[in-house]
Predict the 3D structure of the following.
Amino acid sequence: MGEELADLVTGPVEPTPPARRFERIATKLAKISTWSLEQYRRSAENFSTFLADRQPGLWLIALAVGLAIGTAAVVFRIGIGWVQWLWVGETSEYVIDHIRGLPRWVVFFAPVAGGLVVGLLNQFVLSGRRAGAVADVIEVSAQGGRGLGLANGLWSALATVISLGAGASAGREGPVVHLGATLATTMTRAFSYPAPAARIILACGVASAISASFNAPIAGVLFAHEVVLRHYAVSAFVPIVIASVAGTLAGRVLFIGDMAAFQIPAYAIGSYWEMPAFALLGLTAAVVAISFQFALIVFDQTARSIMMPAWSRPVVGGAVMGLFGLTLPQVLGVGYEATDIALHGGFGLWMMITLLVAKIIATSVALAFRFGGGIFSPALYLGAMTGGSFGMIAAAQAPDLASDHGLYAILGMGSVAAALLGAPISTTVMVFELTGGYALSIALLLSVSIATGLHLAIHGRSYFYHQLETRGVVLAEGPHRFFLKTVTVTSFMSPLEEEASLTDRGDPRTVREFDTLETVLRVFNETGADALAVISSRDPELVVGTVTHVQALRAYNRRLVETSVEEHR
């Protein structure tokens, strides 16, 4: 009955002839075949590009870099212990009680003696008369991933080992990053990779150094992207992860083990009503980070204004370290023991406030007077003291709501470090990996974001970027400003086959051969010229080439395009 009604409405359905069926099947098969061939062609092209970019070799280099730098980080750490043993009689980082038991003259003169050795290295061996740190690595990355000499990097590491072993108040992670980057650039030169790959290899060295130093592989990956590369690219992710994992494995097998750096109780947020307190902690951490950066800048500028031989600067810094050792030995060296005590709630309120102020002064003096070291560990130290102090005050005001002040110490540690380093994502993950405190994520993210935002509002840049700007390297405003200030006329001008006299050519509008792209574009704008004569930097009457407005704009655009491609591959 249903079929009869259907026929009345639509008419009878004619069966499809076999030929039509075969034709449709053939058409579908042809389409599938065409699509398959297209996909095969694309896959073949992608794989050819993969091989042409030498990615397999890059992955192998990343593995080698990770293992080598993980091992070097362990040697670096052991070296600090050996130097420390010479005067403390102990290689462990937990030496506060040992220092208290030493003769006072040993506590005072050990940093002075260490400062003398470091000063001699600065005076006669190290370029720039100082040990390298993270800012140098960022600068090299911006300039193409090359430029760190192996010999200078090794001497720089030695100077830092002596500095920290002698009690200088500074961090070991920044110098390890510099050492890792130095070893990575050495491998880059050996295999002649282009600039984008060289930057990735450099970032591999940084990631493995961080992961081996902190036993924090995820933080190492993120720090390399966030601070050194300053972008996230899928093509860079794989080799950086390989290097970070390899560095972590080397560190764990040789020295660290698979335990977190700080073994703390299982803290938990007592109540979500504490969120305003966590936000206020972010504000407090911002004040500390801002003050620390101001102190680093002021002490550094003051030390620069004092005329003295390079070898004597660390000696003066060592005398200051000795005075701190006599009164507050908790501020000497890397400071992990004091940080650990704060995380466990082992200090009273006024002691933590005292150590907070003392550590800011001690670290500022140590770095200003050219001891080797970084600001990673001091930032964690200051954050732990800030958070612990804040937690005690909060508990006194609202004892029924406030969590343990050890929890606040963890949050403060991440907040101060993130703001100062300009690396909120990697620092947040680093604190998780250092403490195992993943349950605190919501509170940590809130305090870190507020601290970072307020620090940026006052300083406008991280301490690393401030260091670079004192050298004329401006990265905070983006790659376009960096290119304008670093690309010179010699890289895009048309050289003359035979040098000519400026008077004979009659070209009144000129630029010098080492003028920057910014200068050249400004001259074009002011004169309205289409071409300029390029004069020698040695002889202003000698013309060595010409440059057109189009050449200058093409050079600028080419670098912007190359940067965009590298960031999005």
Observations:
- The CA atoms of residues 1 and 194 lie 78 Å apart.
- The longest helix spans residues 18-52.
- The beta strands are 494-501, 510-512, 531-535, 542-548.
- DSSP finds 24 helices and four strands in the chain.
